[in-house]
Amino acid sequence: MSDIPNGFYRISSKALILDENKKFLLSKETSGMWELPGGGVDFGEKPQDAIKREIKEEMGLKTTYIADNPSYFFTFRSTNDVPFSNVVYVTEVENLDFTPSDECIEVRFFTKEEALKVKLFGSIKDFLELFSPENH
Fold this sequence. Notes:
By secondary structure, the chain is α+β, with helices and mostly antiparallel strands. It contains three helices and eight strands, in the order E-E-E-E-H-E-E-E-E-H-H.
C-alpha cells in the first residue's frame, strides 16, 4: 500500500539538463527563487511535450532530447495545499542562448552543494535529496 493518497494532483514535468561536469541547470524565476526548468502538464499533453513547450516559452531554448522515462518522481504540497507530482526527465537542449522572459530571468548550472546556498522552491530541496550525479 502506498503512502501517497489517491486524489487530485497537479502534474509538473521538469527537465534535468546536465553539463559535462554533471552540474544541473536551474532557472531563476521573477520571484528570485530557483527551480528546475519545466512546468505544468496541460490536460491531454505528454510530459515530454510539456517540457519542450515550457523550455521554449520560459527560456527561448530548443530541446534536442528528452528521455522516454523519468529519472525522478516526487510529490509535495504547494503553499495553498494543492498536491503536486513532479516527474523529472533527462533533457538536452540545442544550445544555451538563453532569452529572459516574464517567468525566467536567469539560468545557471549548480552542484548539489551550490544549489543549497540559493533561494530554492521547496520542491527542489526534495529533488536534491534524490539527485545523484553518479547515476547520469
